[in-house]
Design a protein that fits this description.
alpha+beta, 2 domains, 4-stranded mixed beta sheet
Length: 179
């Protein structure tokens, strides 16, 4: 019980989160960004800050900054790529499918999917690369991109087929890659 004059002077001490709990909360929110394809800065918006205050009243938790999210996702991506390289190292034959499309603003997107057989899990299809291209010389740049991705993943000698959409640039690309 405080007198009205004391209430104005009294400040509620915020509960400080332990570093372990903060990391656990940050990891859960970063997982939400990945799983739901959310923008990195969603946690700083007023609605989400209100949600955090309702869920964690009396704390100073604001969620991870977008640069923290980007750094963690970069780290996770590196771990994923290493695991993918290791997984593909035991595969003898890989079939690829590539798809491309353009946004209304003329940004081009390319997705490469690997298809292979694993004795334990059967047939597996996995997106191994995805990229956005802006500007001209699309066919030349996509050729360079696919060559580089196959080399980075150490699978350039394991490709048994490539299936593409009907894009003329892909037909040109395949001729150049394997000629």
């Amino acid at each position: 019980m405080l007198y009205p004059s004391q209430r104005a002077q009294h400040q509620v001490k915020l509960q400080v989160l332990t570093p372990d709990l903060k990391k656990k909360l940050d990891d859960a929110l970063i997982y939400a960004v990945i799983k739901d394809s959310r923008p990195f800065g969603d946690f700083k918006k007023d609605g989400f800050q209100h949600f955090l205050q309702v869920v964690l009243p009396g704390t100073n938790y604001k969620g991870p900054h977008r640069t923290t999210v980007r750094e963690r996702m970069t780290s996770l991506y590196g771990l994923y790529r290493k695991a993918l390289i290791e997984e593909l190292s035991s595969v003898s034959d890989i079939a690829l499918t590539t798809d491309s499309w353009a946004s209304p603003r003329r940004a081009h997107y390319v997705c490469i999917t690997a298809h292979y057989y694993d004795k334990e899990f059967g047939y597996i299809s996995k997106v191994i690369s995805f990229r956005r291209f802006i500007g001209r010389s699309f066919a030349v740049r996509i050729r360079q991109f696919i060559r580089l991705e196959l080399k980075k993943l150490k699978i350039e000698k394991k490709i048994c087929s490539i299936t593409t959409d009907n894009g003329v640039s892909f037909m040109f690309l395949l001729f150049i890659i394997y000629s």
